[in-house]
Amino acid sequence: QDGVHIHIDAKAQLTLLGTEMDYVHSTLASEFVFNNPNIKGTCGCGESFSV
Length: 51
Hints:
Hypothetical Protein Aq_1857, Chain: A, 51 residues, mainly beta
């Protein structure tokens, strides 16, 4: 959308299948949020995950 291109490493493609990316803007922060239905677990801070 709007001419934005996303490049994904070929090794990561299977891990990211079904993942939705959204841009969230609020008064405190603006960030990309990834919703991956394949995640089996996350770390305490939510930055790392396992599939």
